[in-house]
Amino acid sequence: MCGISGIFSFDSDFVIDSELLKSMNNAQAHRGPNGQGYHIKPGIGLGHRRLSVIDLAGGHQPLYNADKSVVVVFNGEIFNHHDLAKELTALGYNFQTHSDTETIVHAWQEWGVDCVHHFRGMFAFILWDSIKKELFVARDRLGVKPLHYSLLSNGSVIFGSELKVLRQHPLCPNTINPESIEDYLTFGYIPDPKTIFSDVFKLEAGYYLHLKQNENSKELIPIQYWDLPWQANETLSSQEIEEELIERLKEAVEIRMEAEVPLGAFLSGGVDSGAIVAMMSQLQSTPVNTCSIGFDVPEFNETDFAKLVADRYQTNHNVEMVNHEDFDLIDKLIDIYDEPYADSSALPTYRVCELARKHVTVALSGDGGDELFAGYRRYRLHMAEQALRDKIPLSIRKPIFSVLGKLYPKLDWAPQFLRAKTTFQSLALSSSEAYLNSMSKLRVDERENLYSKRFLDKLNGYNSGEVFKRLLKGKSFDDPLKEVQYLDYKTWITGDINTKVDRASMAHGLEVRVPFLDHQFIEWAFKVPSSANLYKGEGKAALKKQLESHVPHDNLYRKKMGFSVPLAEWLRGPLKDKLRSLITSEAFMATGIFQSEKINIMLEDHLANKKNHADSLWTLMMLGLFIERESAK
């Protein structure tokens, strides 16, 4: 696991500023504390920060082929590199190292841009071929590892694992993109390919860039090489699920257990982390190193459930308790994420990565199980609403439920059956529109109520519903659950989950591997029928059924707790002053995004306990923190 950076020019005579490249690369020193390396020639400069995990002696980067005509900097792991090395050796390539990085250069020599189809892993890499004068930049299929880029005014292109790398360059654009603000307030993060800044982008998961030097065209056109199997019509039978699920999961875990440094796993007490620890324990003869954190508030503490799995498999279990008023990290979040990011579970994720790094250098995670096997409560609610949508034509639903959605008050404090405002709104929409409405940090009516006329003019009619429309263009789903799972993979997984874990882990020099995000496992498991995943009101039913002999019953069938913090209480109590100062500050209001009186009404209603605006206010507060940092630069 590492950090990569680069400067490329379409002009082969362009002189690379070596000191500038080093400054860019060193901005991500936390990602690679074990060393750095550079390749600098006219028209191309590559930088690398290394966290040593495989081939400690020989895996230094940049890494070259035999005649040094091909060079690569790489962040991630190619988990099938042994098989690839055998295949490439048989084709006549000589390997000088045992590093998975070397498979990339030889795979490029043999297969060109098709090399990505041969890789099984998590990766972002920048490869330069000095004979072909071609730059090849690729990101893994599920977006586990990040990559940012921007075409500058001088015609050069800059790359970096994190946004802070690009921002070291004096020509990096720094104008905030109004559409990114709208997307952020909707999702709580900025979905790929946008960043907070106009003309600065994230390479989307499953895409690559192929740039050629000394050609007239200087366009950056990302090309998609992989997608989830959304077109698959076949579904798996009960027998296939029973016979294959555990073995396929175990295989996805096994290929992620290679390391020359201490290896372990996160253990939250939930289904997915319990499954990963169970598989690891069956695959190695020594006890698994497991790490859990707990809170001093019982309703947020899962350590007793984590202990059930740890005791069953006799793991080397490490637990730390976190004070529920652990606010010191909040100011660090903008430094870690580089742009507004509103998932409050980033706080405990940072702490569990901090704990894990004390004991291991590589940790396996259970992320991705809920999205693949429909474990979230929101999936069940969506399908319940969808049953009503299917019975009533849109021409009838839209006018009736639109009016009800506008008239019905937002009753966050009320029992669940009375919280109908979002439901009424969703019933007036299509399946994907309804899902976006229910997932939004601030719903479209709430956002538009807060926006100033000046900002609405800047948006020029844009709203974040365009994110889903773009992803669904040309696609048709017979199964509405598969449709929203697909959307989660394209937005939530990459923009929220993977971003959260990558930045939190790399802040501590920790590598995290995610078996549930193995693309071969996903291609198989995405064919599990929705009726098997959501069965008699039980989410993740197919997975839980097959795990019954591997994970304690209480872990499988208890109510899902989630990795959360007491936001509403924080924002009415110890964070009240910080919240108020950030979202009513001069810098915040000087952006011209919001109407100050509308912000104040939301704030005071929450503080007076009239309404629960915790998610919305936390989202605004993190935007305020970003704006404060930017205004100070």
Protein described:
This protein is α+β, with helices and mostly antiparallel strands and 633 residues long. The chain contains 28 helices and 17 strands. Strands 2-3-1-9-8-10 form a six-stranded antiparallel β-sheet. The longest helix has 27 residues, at 480-506. It starts with a strand and ends with a helix.
Content-based structural category: alpha+beta
CATH superfamily of the largest domain: HUPs
The chain-level mean pLDDT equals 91
Report the total helices: 28
| Total discrete domains | 2
Main-sheet strand order equals 2-3-1-9-8-10
Secondary structure topology:
Blueprint: E1 2-9, H1 18-26, E2 36-41, E3 44-50, E4 63-64, E5 70-78, H2 81-90, H3 100-111, E6 121-129, E7 134-139, E8 148-151, E9 156-160, H4 163-166, H5 178-187, E10 201-202, E11 207-212, E12 223-224, H6 238-254, E13 263-266, H7 271-283, E14 289-295, H8 303-313, E15 316-322, H9 330-337, H10 346-357, E16 362-364, H11 369-373, H12 377-391, H13 394-407, H14 421-427, H15 431-439, H16 444-450, H17 453-459, H18 465-472, H19 480-506, E17 511-513, H20 519-525, H21 530-533, H22 541-547, H23 553-557, H24 567-572, H25 576-583, H26 586-590, H27 596-607, H28 614-632
Parallel strand pairs: 13-14, 13-16, 14-15, 16-17
Antiparallel strand pairs: 1-3, 1-9, 2-3, 4-5, 5-6, 6-7, 7-11, 8-9, 8-10, 11-12
Helix pairs in contact: 2-3, 6-7, 6-22, 7-8, 10-19, 12-15, 12-19, 13-14, 14-15, 25-28
